[in-house]
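Entry for the shared binder. Reason: the reviewer on the internal report wants the predicted structure included alongside the sequence.
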Amino acid sequence: MSILISNNMNPFTRHPNETENPQGYWKHGLFALVNSLILIYAGLMGVVHAIFPFIFQFTTSTIVIKSFNKLVGSRRHKEELRRELPSDMLDSKYKD
């Protein structure tokens, strides 16, 4: 069975390894889990802020910006950045 499922076909390792900065399964999983939990926290703070605008005034935006910086710094989202951001926002290393 292991001969039939190579690293390229294994759904658990294919995505973490298909970018220009490959990660192992566990490293990718930990990064995704921690980042997602932080963003859930930011979303909850945003809900509180929506009701009480004097509380958590820049908490959500700061967390989202830091999360974005982590994703860009991981060098794993080049194609996604090109697709989703206006070209004038991209650093020259992400333009072709």
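Summary line for the report: The radius of gyration is 17 Å.
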